[in-house]
């Protein structure tokens, strides 16, 4: 359901991804089983298309395991 992610412009793909991420919690907490299944499928479709288009996306070093370890060490030392 919805427009095939491959047919979306980059701008539309970003907008659709923002929307599914904004609505995830409400769908998980209050949606029917069918609504949750559809939401999960749509999220995956959009994210797969994003990764296909942007395989070399910028990765924040703080989001890597080393960054998490550093934050943990800093928290323990304060």
Describe this structure in words.
The chain has helices spanning 10-30, 33-53, 65-77. The chain is mostly helical and 78 residues long. The protein has one domain (5-77). Helix 1 runs antiparallel to helix 2. It is flat. InterPro entries: DUF6158. Residues 57-78 are annotated as: Disordered.
What keywords describe this structure?
single chain, 78 residues, mainly alpha, 71% helix, DUF6158
Report the mean per-residue pLDDT as an integer. 91
* Relative helix content: over 70%
Q: Describe the biggest sheet?
A: none
Q: Tell the overall outline.
A: flat
Question: Which series of helices and strands comes N to C?
Answer: HHH
* Number of helical regions: 3
**How many β strands by DSSP?**
0
User: Rg, please?
Assistant: 17 Å
- Count of spatially separate domains: 1
Helix/strand-derived category reads mainly alpha
Runs in which pLDDT lies below 50 for 5 or more consecutive residues are none
Strand content: under 5%
């Amino acid at each position: 359901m919805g427009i095939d992610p491959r047919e979306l412009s980059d701008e539309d793909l970003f907008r659709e991804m923002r929307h599914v991420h904004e609505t995830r919690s409400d769908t998980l907490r209050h949606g029917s089983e069918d609504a949750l299944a559809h939401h999960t499928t749509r999220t995956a479709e959009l994210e797969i298309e994003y990764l296909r288009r942007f395989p070399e996306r910028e990765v924040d070093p703080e989001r890597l395991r080393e960054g998490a370890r550093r934050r943990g060490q800093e928290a323990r030392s304060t």
